[in-house]
Design goal:
This protein has eleven helices and 15 strands. The protein is of the alpha/beta class. The radius of gyration is 19 Å and the shape is globular. 45% of the residues are buried.
Amino acid sequence: MPATFTPPTLPSTMRVFERGWLSANNILFVDGDDTALVDSGYVTHAPQTLALVEAGLRGRPLRRLVNTHLHSDHCGGNAALQARWQPRTLIPAAEAGAVRAWDVDALSYGATGQQCDRFGFDGVVQDGDVLRLGGMDWQVVAAPGHDPHAVMLFAPQEGILISGDALWENGFGVIFPELDGESGFAEQAAVLERIAGLDARVVIPGHGRPFTNVAAALDVAGGRLAYLSGDAGRNAAHAVKVLVKFKLLEQQRMPRDALLVWMAQAPLMLRIQARFMAGQDLAQVLDRVLESLAAAGALALADGEVYNRD
C-alpha cells in the first residue's frame, strides 16, 4: 500500500501520496474549493489513485490535474481522473501535438511496451509559467534530461521543489534521449545545476520519500551522472534493467519466455540491443539482466518463471 503523509515541513494545503516505482508519487492540493493533483500514477493503479484522491478531497471535486511529464507512470491515471471529475488538465507544452494525435510512439508507450489509457488536455505549462496551487505560487521550471519535455514545479517562498524524475534522493530517472543517440547527459547536468541555484529546502521527487538533504542528493546525482556519461553503454544497461523491473512490477509474475516476447515487441528494447549490445542476441541480453536483478534481490527465478520481489 502507498504511504500517505503530511511532513511537518509541508504546508497543510499539500498532501503527498508516496506510491512506489510502478506509480509515481502524487501531490494533492486542497485550498478551500481550489483543488489540484500533480501526476497520476500508472494505469493499472488507477482505481487506487481514484480512492486516494477521493479520500483526500473529502467530497470536493478535483478541479485541476498537472503532469510533470508524460511517461506512463506519471500520467496513467489521467483518463480515470478525467472520467470521474473532468479536471482542467495541464501538460508540458511540447507534448501537446502528440497527445492531441495520441501518438503512442512519440509518447514512448509503444516504444517501451507500456500501457496508458488515452486522455485529453485543456492547457499547457512551460518554463517561466506560474501556477497557483494550494494557496502558493509555483514556478514552472524546464527539466530536460530524463525526458526532454519534463518540467518541475518550484515554490520559491516556501522553498519546495516538485522535481518529478529530474532529482531523487539517490539519483534520477533513466536518461532516455541518450538511448537513441540524442543529447541527454548535458541537459541533465544543466538541470542539476539549475536545481542547485534554487533555494530548495524540501524536494518532493517523482519516486521515493520527500527529503530535505538537497545538497547531498545533488552530490549523489552528480556522481551518478558522471558514471553514466563516461560510457553511454552503462546508461543503456541500466535502462534495460529498469524497463524489465517495471514490467515485473506491473505483472508480478511472468514466464521467462513471455518476458522475451515482450522485449522483442518493444521497439526501444530492440534499438538498445542493436546500438549498445550488438554482440548479444535478445535472449542473452534478457538472461544477463535477470541474473543481475536476481543477484540484487529484485526478482526470483524458478522453473522458467520470473517473480517480482520488492
